[in-house]
Amino acid sequence: GMGMQQQQQQPPAAAAAGGSAAAAAAAGKPGGSKGQQPGGKKKVLLREAGGEKWVDPSLNEWPENDFRIFVGDLGNEVTDDLLAKSFSKYSSFAKAKIVRDSRTKKSKGYGFVSFLDGNDFAKALREMNGKYIGNRPCKLSKSSWEERTVRKVNMREPQAKKQKR
Questions:
Q1: How far apart are CA 155 and CA 159, in angstroms?
Q2: Torsion angle of alpha carbons 149, 155, 159, 162, nearest 10°?
Q3: Where is the composition biased (Low complexity) (predicted)?
Q4: Which of 2, 39, 67, 159 is deepest in the core (most CB within 10 A)?
């Protein structure tokens, strides 16, 4: 199951970085507390690559516990705006972002779309896969960012079995 999904997401470096960021975000979340810490400071999310950690402010722009779709096969003409317009018909659509090269600002050909509601996420995943965004049909898959909710669900199952005794 999970191994195959990793292969679909073209750049292995990006997939690996996304995975570790998700794991780091999940690990640094004691008991699923909200983003506000006692001091009222904004939560700082660290990303790690090649042994170096840096603060990635863009991670704070995303809603907490959102449902995120990886959108691949995008042409260079697709902007955050166009991506957002393509998914804005879903009422809980929250954010769309094209991943760009930090130096050249050129699109890397993929992006992410975020929903606050799991039903919209599932509908968008079903309805928008293969639809044209810009000049070519997009490829959608569940973002690996979502691994944290998968982990939560797996932890709940054993307890449910115990109650049936």
A1: 8
A2: 130
A3: 1-28
A4: 67
